[in-house]
Amino acid sequence: MSATRDDLTAAGFRLAWRLVRAVPEPAALALAERAADRVHARGGARVEQLRANLRRARPGAAPDELDALVREGLRSYARYWCDVFRLPGWSRERTVASVRAVGDGPLRERLSAGRGVVVFLGHTGNWDHAAAWSALELAPVVTVAERLRPEAVFEGFLSFRRSLGMEVLPLGDPGTFPTLVRRARAGAFVPLLGDRDLSGNGVPVRFLGEQVPVAAGPAALALASGAALFPASLWYEGAPGRPRTLVVEFGAEVRRPPADPARGARAARDAAVAAMTQACADAVAAGVRAHPQDWHVLQPLFADDVARAARAARGERGERGRR
Fold it and tell me: What pLDDT does 107 receive?
């Protein structure tokens, strides 16, 4: 059953990649929005999880306001997938012209001087579009991808991202971090998604008012390589249902804090990673609060939700066992 499900999933992605590119863009965007509206109307665990996450970004929102935000969030997420499937067919001019960069001056200066740059991103806007733009406008892009199931889907995304000019390394591979260090030292641009900890070794930070673990990799890489570290927020602007501009706003460079001479080298490094990660999380949280509809996290992120999901999973396993 698992193999059959994986084959169907892979076939579904291959079909979507072909069909979405074959349909005129206005029709594809309209279909994506209608699909999102159906998901919103049907509800379910992931929709409710998005609602719970967005409630942290807009804690004072009335129920109707929050429900409208969930609907717009699902539409934005559908837009992300629509653009992902169409990106390989975009011209260089379309890829570049559809991005508006804000605060990119200091980052360009570091790259022009031959210094690598690491960027801490959240799951906002369209990070694939932003990376494709970066490969054309900034420097060679090196990044990391979570291993997806089935393997055919993971390989498909690797091919897709490489076609956009990225070098993609697998998350969790022992050689990934040393390779990132070498690339950053050589002047590469390394955008990394950091608002979800996928390694189990994240740094606890305050994010949207609660403590959550986020990825330590961006700060650790900047320290190990000497690369500059910047946070970035992404969101869409423009009228729904039409081609829109992706805004990529870079925050101020996050520098290593002064070391405490009373600490050993390892403790000082860990403290620096924690402080720099918190600064990045603060910047990304500010972007999420300003543009919550473009934050695409439909998984449990906060402690209460993670615990609730774990209890539900144990209950389902127990129910299957009784059957």
Answer: 96
